[in-house]
Specification:
mainly alpha, two-stranded antiparallel sheet, 12 helices
Length: 223
C-alpha cells in the first residue's frame, strides 16, 4: 500500500488535510445517517478506483484489491483497540468480539467482501500476527511515509504536542515493525509512554463529551 500512498497522496505536502479527510470519511461512514454513510462509502470507492500502479518490484497493485483493503482495515481495528485499552480501559473478551463484529460492517463500507474478513476476533488476531511475521515488507517508500508522519513540518509552538504524538505513535507500534523501521526506542521512552497512559486514563473521565468525542460521533450517539 505504501506505493499507492506515495504515488497518489500528498502526505508530505499537506499531511494535516489528508488526515482530516481520512477522519471525516471514517466518521461519516460510522456515525452518519444511513444516506450520508452510504454517500461517504461511495465517494471512497470512487477515489480508490483511480488508484493503481506498479510497486518497486514491478508488481501491479490496485487500491480495491480486497487483500490490501483488508490490511488497511486491520490496522484501523488494531490501532483503535490498542489506544482504547491503553488510554481508556481494557475491554472484556465479549466486548472485543462485539467490536470486531461491528467493524465488519465498516469493512464492507470500505469495499471489503465480508467473506474476505477473518470470521471472529480470534481469527483476526491470527491474521494480524501472520501479517507481522510474513506479510509485510519495509521499503524505502515505507520509510519515507513513516518519516513524513513522524516528522512533519511544524511551527515551533506545535513541537511539544508533536513530540508526544511521536512517542505514542512509535511506542504503540508492533515491536517487529518498529525494529524493521529502525525507530529508536528504549527504557526511558517506555517509562514516559506508561506515564502518559496513567495520566490520560485519570484525566479522561473528567472531560465533558464535548471534548472527548468528535462532533459526528456526538451526533451519531444522539440519533
Amino acid at each position: 500500500m505504501a506505493a499507492g500512498v506515495a504515488e497518489f497522496s500528498n502526505y508530505r505536502a499537506d499531511p494535516w488535510r489528508r488526515l482530516y479527510r481520512t477522519l471525516d470519511t471514517t466518521l461519516s461512514v460510522v456515525f452518519g445517517s444511513r444516506e450520508s454513510s452510504r454517500a461517504a462509502s461511495e465517494r471512497l470507492r470512487r477515489v480508490h478506483e483511480r488508484v493503481s500502479g506498479t510497486d518497486d518490484r514491478g508488481e501491479r497493485y490496485r487500491a480495491l484489491d480486497p487483500e490490501l483493503l483488508l490490511w488497511v482495515h486491520a490496522t484501523l481495528i488494531d490501532t483503535s483497540l490498542t489506544m482504547y485499552s491503553r488510554y481508556v480501559q481494557e475491554l472484556t473478551a465479549a466486548e472485543l468480539e462485539r467490536y470486531y463484529e461491528e467493524m465488519k460492517t465498516l469493512g464492507e463500507a470500505y469495499s471489503i467482501p465480508r467473506d474476505a474478513m477473518p470470521d471472529d476476533y480470534a481469527a483476526f488476531r491470527r491474521y494480524w500476527d501472520s501479517m507481522l511475521r510474513d506479510g509485510l515488507r519495509v521499503t524505502e517508500t515505507t520509510r519515507d511515509v513513516a518519516d513524513a508522519v513522524l516528522r512533519p513540518d511544524l511551527t515551533v509552538l506545535a513541537w511539544p504536542a508533536m513530540e508526544l504524538l511521536r512517542m505514542v505513535t512509535v511506542g504503540t507500534l508492533p515491536r517487529e515493525l518498529r525494529d524493521d523501521l529502525a525507530l529508536p526506542w528504549g527504557p526511558t521512552r517506555d517509562r514516559a509512554l506508561a506515564g502518559s497512559q496513567v495520566a490520560i486514563r485519570r484525566l479522561m473521565p473528567l472531560l465533558p463529551a464535548l471534548v472527548r468525542r468528535f462532533p459526528k460521533a456526538r451526533s451519531g450517539a444522539l440519533r
